[in-house]
Design a protein that fits this description.
The protein contains 4 helices and 10 strands. The protein is an alpha+beta fold. Helix 1 runs parallel beside helix 3. The chain starts with a strand and ends with a strand.
Length: 184
């Protein structure tokens, strides 16, 4: 990792340079690799009593920035490093989730049961009788059919493990099963 320092409105001590170098080298563990082409631009400046640290971190498919101001340059460096580490961790987790995809994870599903009744003036009114939120379980179509057979229900919402999509299997009037697959 290549670290570039820029100092504005003050002459840094050797101790500050070494301290900042040592602290910012920690970020290399997040991007690592044999051909590490990441670059860290560190801008440290002093305006009256404000000590400001600004960082721009670029790498392979990565561009992050953070800045922090305090009354001490050492604490500004520590604070901005914490911010940047949090961003890098978040970015790494996001990319891990993308690689894994949504396999095995489905969004929660909400089911509502309605009941219709006639009002005094002859119009039908819809009333919610029951509402339920749940996460569909991943299973094959055959497993879902067996589950529906064992349950005393008219339908079952499940995560189709072969297609990685939410499907609905339902019991038809002739006791056969029907399948609803919303995405194709």
């Amino acid at each position: 990792m290549n670290i570039n320092f820029t100092f504005k409105n003050f002459e840094p001590s050797e101790h500050l340079k070494k301290y900042a170098q040592r602290r910012f080298e920690k970020l290399s563990k997040y991007v690592g690799g044999k051909e590490d082409s990441s670059e860290l631009n560190v801008n440290l400046s002093v305006d009256k009593y404000r000590h400001r640290a600004e960082i721009i971190f670029t790498g392979d498919k990565l561009h992050l920035s953070a800045n922090e101001t305090s009354e001490d340059m050492y604490s500004s460096i520590d604070l901005v490093l914490d911010k940047l580490e949090a961003q890098v961790r978040k970015n790494r987790e996001k990319s891990k989730d993308k690689r894994k995809g949504s396999k095995g994870r489905a969004k929660p599903v909400q089911t509502q049961f309605f009941q219709y009744s006639e009002s005094e003036d002859g119009t039908k009114e819809r009333k919610i009788v029951e509402s339920d939120n749940f996460e569909p379980k991943p299973m094959s179509i055959d497993e879902a059919a067996m589950q529906l057979d064992n349950l005393n229900c008219d339908f079952l919402v499940f995560l189709n493990s072969e297609l990685d999509r939410v499907n609905v299997i339902y019991r038809r009037k002739n006791d056969d099963f029907g399948l609803i697959d919303p995405g194709t």
